[in-house]
Amino acid sequence: MVKQNIIPISSDNLTLTCDVTGRYDTIYWMKDNLSLVLNNTLNSDITISNNSLHFSPVKVSNDGNYQCVATNLFGPHTSPKYQLLVNYGPLSVNVSGPGLVVIGSVITVNLKCSADSRPTSEYRWKYNNQSLPATGPLMAVGVSLKNAGIYTCVAKNSLTNISMSNTIGLNVTGHSPAPPFQSRVGLMLMGLVALSLPLINH
């Protein structure tokens, strides 16, 4: 069977060992049901020594199902598949939401945070650099002038122990925007036409 020496984390060194009982003559490795070819561009950081496969370092591109094959006079003996999933990130954090909100148009707005990470990141929020009790990828904000400001989402991967953040500005106005100039002119003309119409007596 195939054993790992540590939890696989991107940019760390990792060793997979082929645990063989009994006598064997040679050992070779397979990835995704194909013989593992070394010394090419994709696998340039992988080496084999004795019954171990070394990643220096391990990368997300190394994800896959690995097997070791031990051969002796009685033929090849293939290990069960070992699935390598390399943990990483967060590599980037994205915060989305409305930039401008008019009071009275909605009651609350949602800010959404996402991060490229394995496993899924944990999320915390800050308002004007002050920590908030809210957690999770969604942040509901009540629409009021006092809630305008800078919101920060902090994403943390508990396995890699890496944190990354990004911000979004929320602007709140207490007045609806003025209608476009063309619309105002149209309203004025309608008013003038209404005033110029003669009264009709029946």
From TrEMBL:
<dbReference type="InterPro" id="IPR003599">
    <property type="entry name" value="Ig_sub"/>
</dbReference>
<dbReference type="InterPro" id="IPR013783">
    <property type="entry name" value="Ig-like_fold"/>
</dbReference>
<keyword id="KW-0325">Glycoprotein</keyword>
<feature type="domain" description="Ig-like">
    <location>
        <begin position="90"/>
        <end position="169"/>
    </location>
</feature>
<keyword id="KW-0393">Immunoglobulin domain</keyword>
<dbReference type="InterPro" id="IPR007110">
    <property type="entry name" value="Ig-like_dom"/>
</dbReference>
<dbReference type="InterPro" id="IPR036179">
    <property type="entry name" value="Ig-like_dom_sf"/>
</dbReference>
<dbReference type="InterPro" id="IPR052598">
    <property type="entry name" value="IgSF_CEA-related"/>
</dbReference>
<dbReference type="Pfam" id="PF13895">
    <property type="entry name" value="Ig_2"/>
</dbReference>
<dbReference type="Pfam" id="PF13927">
    <property type="entry name" value="Ig_3"/>
</dbReference>
<protein>
    <recommendedName>
        <fullName>Ig-like domain-containing protein</fullName>
    </recommendedName>
</protein>
<keyword id="KW-1015">Disulfide bond</keyword>
<dbReference type="InterPro" id="IPR003598">
    <property type="entry name" value="Ig_sub2"/>
</dbReference>
<keyword id="KW-0732">Signal</keyword>
<feature type="domain" description="Ig-like">
    <location>
        <begin position="1"/>
        <end position="87"/>
    </location>
</feature>
